[in-house]
Design brief:
The complex is a heterotrimer of chains A (272), B (276) and C (226).
Chain A: H1 3-19, E1 35-39, E2 47-53, E3 56-67, E4 78-84, H2 100-115, E5 125-127, E6 131-143, H3 148-161, E7 164-165, E8 176-177, E9 185-192, E10 195-198, E11 211-216, E12 222-228, H4 235-262
Parallel strand pairs in A: 4-6
Antiparallel strand pairs in A: 1-2, 2-3, 3-6, 5-6, 7-8, 9-10, 9-11, 11-12
Chain B: E1 7-8, E2 11-12, E3 24-28, E4 36-42, E5 45-56, E6 69-76, H1 91-104, E7 116-126, H2 131-145, E8 153-162, E9 165-168, H3 172-177, E10 180-189, E11 192-205, H4 207-236, H5 246-275
Parallel strand pairs in B: 6-7
Antiparallel strand pairs in B: 1-2, 3-4, 4-5, 5-7, 8-9, 8-10, 10-11
Chain C: E1 4-5, E2 10-12, E3 22-25, E4 28-31, E5 35-39, E6 44-48, E7 60-69, E8 72-76, E9 83-86, H1 92-95, H2 100-103, E10 109-117, E11 123-126, E12 133-135, E13 139-142, H3 148-152, H4 157-166, E14 169-172, E15 177-181, H5 184-200, H6 206-225
Parallel strand pairs in C: 9-11
Antiparallel strand pairs in C: 1-5, 2-4, 3-4, 5-6, 7-8, 7-10, 8-9, 10-11, 10-12, 13-15, 14-15
Amino acid sequence: MTDDILMDIKRDYVLSRIRAGERIDGRKFDEFRPISVQTGIIEKAEGSALVKLGNTQVVVGVKMQIGEPFPDTPDRGIIITNAELVPLASPTFEPGPPDENSIELARVVDRGIRESEAINLEKLCIEEGEQVWMVFIDIHALDDDGNLMDASAMAAIAALMNTVVPAERFEVGEDFPLPVQDLPISITSLVVDDKLLVDPCRDEMSVGSNLMTITSDREGRVVAMQKSGSYLLPEEKFYELLELSVAKAREIREAVESQIAKGGRNGEDEES
Amino acid sequence: MEKPKLIVDGKRLDGRGFEELRPIKIEAGVLKRADGSCYLEMGKNKIIAAVYGPREVHPRHLQDPSKAVIRYRYNMAPFSVEERKKPGPDRRSVEISKVSREALEPVIMKELFPRSGIDVFVEVLQADAGTRTACLNAASVALIDAGVAMRGMITAVAVAKVDGQLVLDPMKEEDNYGEADVPIAFLIRNGRIEAIALLQMDGRLTLEETRRAIELAKKGVMQIYKLQREAIMRKYMREGEDYEGSAEAAEVAKELSENEGGSEKEGGQSEQEVKE
Amino acid sequence: MRKIVMPGDLIARNPRAAGYGTYVEKGKVYAKFLGLLDKTDTCVRVIPLKGRYIPSPGDVVIGIVREVTANGWVVDIYSPYTAFLPVSEYPENALKNRKVNEVLDIGDAIIGKVLNIDPKMKVTLTMKDRVCKPVRVGRVVAINPARVPRVIGKKGSMIKLLKSELGIQIIVGQNGLIWLNGDRRKVSIAEEAIYIIEEEAHTEGLTDRITEFIKKKKGELENGEA
């Protein structure tokens, strides 16, 4: 892992800047990197989005199939979220079956979508107990320059908002847009000493991977939380993170919405 | 399936109050082969935890020259749930193993045992909601039972929101039909809650409810912490009797061995004889 | 009766008193692992009740050769860390131009001494001490390393008792391995006694009971012979 040595070398520099109250890329502690969202970039997918968060790039594709509902929810569609950290995206990613990091990524993104009820699953029932739509959300990392979590969550919801249910192809009626009714936004912060760095980039992660992700819905309710990384989080820091994340999510949600509004099919790369 | 009413006349389905834990039973040192172990029941959850190590890590490339490598394996037995669970790790257990390991890592003094490994294996024999927190409670006792150096105790509990009400330590029905679930673990040192070691959440909570959930969890873990300590005390109580400390013992052992070394000089002849 | 302490228990407020088994944070002394509290005015320490053997320089240990290399032996010392015994730390007169594996081969047991430990826990053994020798006779028994002090007893009283009553040789390795040599049947009695001590060292009047036990077993031996 040749990346490791670079991380070691950068650690002291990054830390000294943070302690001096600065971030290495000049951002404020609560500032996101520029966000760009392009939707409909994969024609073969029912919905898709490419999100750039600074240099971090993630593609999410949505595919749909008809399947049997779960016995305990016979009148509801099914969400299946998967993430692949392909070796192309980072020198530290290895080929092979999903490791704990990709599983965690997929499950935290899934929770945000599921718990905010972003998709109206009742409208994805074709025949109760027999046939429902299955929504496959596949997260494909392209370039990991830090905070794949938030980039993936944004790409996932953008792709869902762009999804058309292929009812005609499956001969069960007319195509219709996927019923999306919320826009959950996850905010991931890096905890360094008593500082909170929103949307950490890869170099900042050289000081450690003490992360906290808090996802909230349009109403400002918390829908998912995940402490990730081997560290102890002081309780008062958590309350600070909670306020910060929900407030920040409002701002990011607006940015994502305006990007989606102008970033239709073949939308040009318009970095904010 | 219809969602049942989870709170009737201010009581939960199993008769508990909102801030009441399920009955808990903890026993330390239940396995012979493991360096440390613990059996724990929390309601219908039945958990067994084992700790091995610090021990040599194989293969070698997994070793860390500066500290011990911690491994945590959360595993559900196929018979632990209503519908048989396919054996082996699924995505859920991989994630639980990761966040649980990350809760223990900053508490175990890994730097004291470079190149070694400490394995924590937790088996869920019967599951009834809140298994990840129950497992961490068992793992923590097993680690202490193994004599592993740590900064304090890890104690965990879940808080749920059911029928609009925050409740401590949800059981299966409350977990299935609840509006939110917050598993949380704290580092407790000398009877004081020091920090959050694990925190996850899914569902829907307002900011205010989230804060209250944490407060409720804190009440719960203090009770569990007491039971964890009692379990260890029960096993080791008899050991409190005075006996010579290890430092003197090392010297005495050397002294005694010196004598043996001397007598062996004379016995050297017989050693040869035995060999031939 | 000593107090049992657990990791994180506050045991002193004077950082200068912090001894073995403790750690200091913000001027307070906490227990590091499960153990018995040993507190005096000048020093507070924790005597471990459980745990693997972690080598310390000067410790007498018993180990088994696991690997033979050109310049020494890799020795399993019943610890998270294997030890290395370099040829240069074997008494020269005993080498006698023999090949390394003729001096000690895989599976051979030795009584050695921990010479040093580097910061990465590479443990080096020496055999250049009169205590040290290859174990070619007798028997090795294993107990939990944290219980070694019990087997030794106050000022060595327990070991002395076993030796004098049974007339056998005993060397206690700090790593929980104990070498016994002498009359095969008496070694068996000692082995049994050691397991009893390991289990029951905390009870009152143990010395008396061990004395009783040995007398009884010796009696059985003599009767059997008669």
